[in-house]
């Protein structure tokens, strides 16, 4: 199977590192023109210089801060005044860790703005062109926590569930326009996010971050955490014509970690 995204334009959130960066690299590898989106401008410039660039491919970046919705809204609105997008990868920073009893209603509101509001707003803007061209791909980076809530991640467990049910509703509404909307349920992946969460968890438990990591790996049937590039392959497939009949799904990528059906 040959995956070609030639002539397609993709916007990838949180793509200066981690999962988002790996997705951006794979979409470019498959022929798409990619717009990166994150805070670290220097890092995005470096990645743009490294992305696969065949004839017709043009990459760019957008400096945004998802944690300030008002400022984000201005930047993204102005972006869509001059650009159209065929493939939207909704990926934002993960919310703070912590159990349900440690979080206030304000924390939940903040996580909602970060994980849900920015995603819905960006998608609405992207959909205008997708509906006109009768082709589009919306792919959400979500978490296995929507099926099996994770300990110490109450905010993520709660708000990500809203994102995937929204995506399911959206898939229904845009199916006849040739647009698919899918969510990827992320297991454990080797990124800075996991290192940071493990360090905090280790402090709390009085063990080393390495011990937290190895107990994490032990839980995964494949006995390892995922490589970001493995995530990129799945997203490139979902973004392609080959996945035209796949919509409204929640696809786990977790080395077999989820036990629920
Ligand atoms: N890694 C895992 O095992 C795992 C598991 C389940 C779910 N997830 C979720 O998957 C998503 C990606 O995680 P990751 O592991 O790739 O994280 P990561 O390595 O920490 O990367 C996060 C990306 O988001 C950007 N970002 C962070 N804060 C931002 C902000 N305020 N505004 C704009 N961009 C921001 C970062 O770039 P800048 O710093 O340049 O802004 C970076 O590009 C997160 O939502 C995470 O919760 C990850």
What does this structure look like?
The chain contains eight helices and seven strands. With 261 residues, the chain is α/β, with parallel strands linked by helices. Helix 4 (105-133) links the parallel strand 4 and strand 5 (136-143). The site of NADP nicotinamide-adenine-dinucleotide phosphate has 28 residues, from helix 1, strand 5 and helix 6.
CATH class of the largest domain: Alpha Beta
- Terminal CA distance reads 28 Å
Assess the beta-strand content as a share of residues: 5-15%
Count of all domains: 2
Q: What small molecules accompany the polymer chains? A: NADP nicotinamide-adenine-dinucleotide phosphate
| Largest pleated sheet | 7 strands, parallel
The secondary structure category is alpha/beta
Overall CATH architecture of the largest domain: 3-Layer(aba) Sandwich
Q: Rounded to an integer, what's the Rg over CA atoms?
A: 18 Å
Would you list the SSEs in sequence order as H and E?
EHEHEHEHEHEHHHE
**Percent of residues in helical segments?**
40-55%
The assembly state of the depicted protein chains is single chain
Instruction: Show unreliable segments.
Output: none
Number of helices: 8
Q: What is the molecular shape?
A: globular
- How many DSSP E strands? 7
CATH topology of the largest domain: Rossmann fold
Q: Averaged pLDDT, please?
A: 96
């Amino acid at each position: 199977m040959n995956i070609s995204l030639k002539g397609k334009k993709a916007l990838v959130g949180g793509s200066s590192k981690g999962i988002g960066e790996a997705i951006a690299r794979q979409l470019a590898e498959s022929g798409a023109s990619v717009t990166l989106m994150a805070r670290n401008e220097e890092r995005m410039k470096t990645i743009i210089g490294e992305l696969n660039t065949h004839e017709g491919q043009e990459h760019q970046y957008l400096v945004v801060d998802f944690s300030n919705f008002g400022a984000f809204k201005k930047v993204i609105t102005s972006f869509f005044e001059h650009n159209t997008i065929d493939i939207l990868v909704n990926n934002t920073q993960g919310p703070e860790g912590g159990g349900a009893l440690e979080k206030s209603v304000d924390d939940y509101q903040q996580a909602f703005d970060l994980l849900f509001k920015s995603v819905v707003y960006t998608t609405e803007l992207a959909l205008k062109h997708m509906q006109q061209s009768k082709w589009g791909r919306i792919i959400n980076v979500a978490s296995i926590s929507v099926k099996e809530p994770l300990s110490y991640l109450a905010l993520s467990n709660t708000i990500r569930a809203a994102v995937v049910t929204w995506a399911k509703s959206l898939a229904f509404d845009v199916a006849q326009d040739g647009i698919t909307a899918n969510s990827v349920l992320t297991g454990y992946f080797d990124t800075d996010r996991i290192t940071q969460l493990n360090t905090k968890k280790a402090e709390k438990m009085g063990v080393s971050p390495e011990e937290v990591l190895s107990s994490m790996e032990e839980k995964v049937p494949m006995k390892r955490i995922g490589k970001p590039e493995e995530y990129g392959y799945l997203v490139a497939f979902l973004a392609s014509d080959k996945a035209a009949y796949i919509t409204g799904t929640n696809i786990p990528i977790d080395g077999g970690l989820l036990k629920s059906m």
